[in-house]
Amino acid sequence: MVVGSKGNGLASAEDHTKSKKAQKKEAKDAAKTARKEERKALNASQQHDTGSDDDYSVGKYGQIPMIQSAEIIRREFFHVKQLEPDFANTTVWVRGRLHTSRAKGKQCFIVLRQQQYTVQCLIAVSEVVSKFMVKFASNITKESIVDIEAVVREVGSKIESCTQKNVELHVTQLFTVSPAKSQLPLLIEDAARPIKEDEDMEGLNIRVNQDTRLDNRVLDLRTPANQAIFRLEAGVCRLFRDILTEKGFVEIHTPKIIPAASEGGANVFTVSYFKGSAYLAQSPQLYKQMAIAADFDKVFTIGAVFRAEDSNTHRHLTEFVGLDLEMAFKYHYHEVLHTIGDTFTLMFKGLRDRYADEIASVGQQFAVEPFKFLDPPLQLEFPTAVAMLREAGVNMGDEDDLSTPDEKLLGRLIRAKYDTDFYILDKYPLAVRPFYTMPDPKDSKRSNSYDIFMRGEEIMSGAQRIHDAEFLTERAKAHDIDLEKIRSYIDAFRFGCAPHAGGGIGLERVVMLYLGLDNIRKTSMFPRDPKRITP
Amino acid sequence: MNGPNTMYRMRPIIKLREELVLPKCMYRMKNIQQAYVNNRVDRQLSHEIEPSSISEQVKKLLKCPLPEMAALENRQEAILAQLADLKNQITVLRAQLKQPHICTVREEADISTNKTCNILQNGVIHDIVINASPRYPPYSIAALRRLWSDGLKLGVRCHIHSSILELPKNLDKFLCLVSNSDQERSSLLNITLVWKDVGADTQLVVSPMKHITMKGEVNILRYLSRLGPPKFNYELDNDPATSARLDGVLDACYSLARCRTVKEQQSLIRTLNSYLGKSQFMAGGESISVADVAVWSVLRQIDIQPQRDLSSNMNKWLHDCSQLLGIDL
């Protein structure tokens, strides 16, 4: 008791000693809480009121409970891209994301986004829309998924900020289906802002850097450019399949877990395999060739390829999608080279004609020149390329390989002369190619091999392969290769094999170069490089 | 000070400090104009009269020549003497070998053929690119291929640029004429013909490093005629007056391809008509020349009816050309 009374006495003493300022503050805080309470009470009463008479839009807006497939609602939804003036004055349902919203007094403008398409919506106080509904609309967080019932109206002046420029939606019902957190790690608007050469110092200049994008890939992928890039990537894959199938190729699937390194040069990933270890395939080449030896005549394969190269460049990934083909020919490997060239030309034409929207969409964010090509593709011989480079002042020997800067320069020279971003370089020096490359019968220093370039970067390296086991052994010895390690490869040719040639491309690299992007991470949905294995 | 007095005097934009401190880490060079400057200062000190005009200044300069100038003059004299000596030696040698004093045109032409072949074989010109619009097919290339035949084999490869969606059907015949697969291997001059939307400005790209793009079909013809067999080089084969006249014909073709109105077109056709006159070919002689090829090509590109728009001699000429070239499109 005594202690207690003493304590009380102390407290009261402290009360007295408190400065006037602190007292004032306390009083203020108290007033604030009181006011808050008051407001809350008022709100509650208002909400209570609205239920009865004031809010006549009740039931036409709000958050719907999590959809657990409780009931079947038959409702026809329109895609935002379908919204054109021919739908004027009809009522439609649309589901999309709230891209941006802007409230102004009695009305609220919302930009609704569905994939790369956007449309402007207007929620204004009227006989069906109460001011509470407008308030609700203005409080929905960005990137939330909403269901909207609205009347399509034609607009007088074009809405430049949206893809649907000629219509806007006058909202009659509005529900949030899946709300987003109010704090976003990046804004879609910022991530989608066009990159301009001449930086406007005064304008809004917020950029999202590559790592932030990749860390929050789900959000980043929602930008129109990314939507287009990956649709185009699917297009490349599909065209590759369709064109080759049309040409009589068979799609095969090769193992990704392999017993030994299949190709020299690039490093392989080791994985534990029960009690021993195995490797991840760095190329389906051996299996493609075995399929040829097994009389499949023309084969192609699409699948993951792994390279354990510790190179952090704009064009290397440790895992990528390889599009590989191999084809038996009758007498000359140019039969294959022409097929490859034709495949590319058809693919580029297909992209140009069927994916014009996607290409334009990417072009809006990353201003790049459209891809140029010739039909039939330009085919030059290696010595011609060397002569062109020498003319431009590059010092190189006849048997040297092209360095990366040389390749870029050559790309620029060829573009200036022939106005094409795609070309084939034939007849590489034998010294710079792998041991299984067939030498040129007329010139022992050259080989029946070719590289294919897009915008001055190599995308495919291919050759006629040696299909004779004896000759292959001889060439392997000349390269000082341990014959034991490649026994199974050589054995594949012991029972007769058709002459064949082929090559492979990396899907991500082709898409990057076709679109003229500067980094391969932009064309890989979840890129893997030496420094990143997440997300 | 030394400028003409008729110009405005400008105030210096920046004033330098009196003394410039120069780094001493490098060798000091003598001012090469010091002699002249000193000379002038001396003169000014002695005469105190400003030269009133440039000509006077020049005169003064000539009156008191600089030692450098004298040295240069001496050197030139020495070189000229050396050249004269060499010329004498050659004349003596020629007399000994009993060679005529003046080479014949024929021989010069042979030399040039060899030179052309050398240029082409040694790969100085690997390949030339011609960009042409499908609306204006370069018929002259097809004509040259026929005309030159063995003189200089042309290997033409056709490509379609991605900016052209589809090639018109009427070009099929032209493509057959122009590209011939069996000649590809033995050809001396490779032409890559790219169909591209360039309008009437048919382009020629030889090497992006050393040449600029040439525009207009007739200019390409001029270029090719220098490379081709000398027999068809209008500048070698004719006297300068005829060459100049043929240049006029070529220029008329250039304008004809770019005509906007029918009136313009008709007046140019009349010009060409007067160039032809009563003769058999444009050059006046009895042999076909580059000018004929140019006119023949452009008349196929523009929209005219030969019977209605051309004179009778022109019609006959057109017929003769087609017969001679063996091309009937």
Give short descriptive properties of this protein:
heterodimer; A: 535 residues; alpha+beta; OB fold (Dihydrolipoamide Acetyltransferase, E2P); BirA Bifunctional Protein, domain 2; 3 domains; 15 helices; disordered N terminus; B: 329 residues; alpha/beta; 5-stranded mixed beta sheet; 8% strand; Aa-tRNA-synt_II (chain A)
Explain how this protein is built.
The complex is a heterodimer of chains A (535) and B (329). The model of chain A is unreliable at 1-14 and 48-52 (pLDDT under 50). Chain A is of the alpha+beta class and 535 residues long. Chain A is elongated and about 95 Å long. In chain A, 34% of the residues lie in helices and 23% in strands. In chain A, the strands form 3 sheets. An 8-stranded mixed β-sheet of chain A has the order 8-12-13-19-18-17-16-15, with helices on both faces. A 5-stranded mixed barrel of chain A has the order 3-4-5-7-6. Chain B has a domain at 113-325: Up-down Bundle (Glutathione S-transferase Yfyf (Class Pi), Chain A, domain 2), CATH 1.20.1050.130. Helices cover 51% and strands 8% of the residues of chain B. Chain B is built from 13 helices and 5 strands. In chain B, strand 2 (154-161), helix 6 and strand 3 form a beta-alpha-beta unit. The longest helix of chain B is centred in the first third of the chain and has 31 residues, at 67-97. The model of chain B is unreliable at 100-109 (pLDDT under 50). The interface between A and B is medium-sized, with 24 and 19 residues. Strand 14 (374-375) of chain A pairs antiparallel with strand 2 of chain B, so a sheet runs across the interface.
